[in-house]
What does this fold into?
Amino acid sequence: MSLMFKLLATTLLLSSFVYANSTSKKVEDFLSNEFGDNPRIKSITVKVEEVKPLKDVKGWDAYIINIEAYLKDKPKNKIEQKMIWFSNGVAITKEFTNLNNGDNYVDEVKPSIKKVEYKKENLIYGNANAKHRVAIFSDPLCPFCKDFAPAALTYMKKYPNKFAVYYYHFPLLRIHPASAIITRAAVIAEKKGFKDVAIKMYDIKVNPREKDVSKILAAFNKVVGSSVTEKEIKDPKISAVIKHDTQFASNHFVNGTPTIYFDDKIDKTRKKFKTAK
It folds into this structure.
């Protein structure tokens, strides 16, 4: 459970459905008032960033909310988090489940990536003004990523005016702790000018749960042809790059890999790039 939700849960005493107006302004005001009752919160700003209709539930919309808050005991530390709420104009709820299949509608709603959110630091192939934008969130030791990413990246690399490919490191550390070292090493190798790091690193042969840094770096350098050192991966600037990517993933509710966005919207098929004109 996120820090923000833990802080707010004690004061947000809602039943499954709470009556409220459905306009974005009313949703913002309603949540601001409820969250603001928490005695630990000094100030809070609630903003509706996007509204998405639920296709198979008539009259209901998903509201993608951005929350910024400051705590009284840490007034200089801003807490920022995105959340999803649902409303039909009469009620509002945090949990919304499909009775037919048990799916949570939160998993069906993903915010679009705004054009201004793409950064040149994440552009690994193609031109920024290419016809299509593709965002890839991936873990180099994820078996599904190994099956998808190298071939997809190799294909899109051939068409720089067709695809602008943005890559986001999203190591799944609970199951692949070794990815923490590989992703840091990848950032360093890319900064040094080594080519196709994002493709080559999927060929690394190492136990996903390996924690010996020297073994992981040796496996990485062998595949990439680099000489990244343990000292280099400890650089705070490298940590900031990984933090940016993982935070970006969190802001878009990415919780698994590989996750693909095509032209700013999530592509659950992971195949749209193949048929793009």
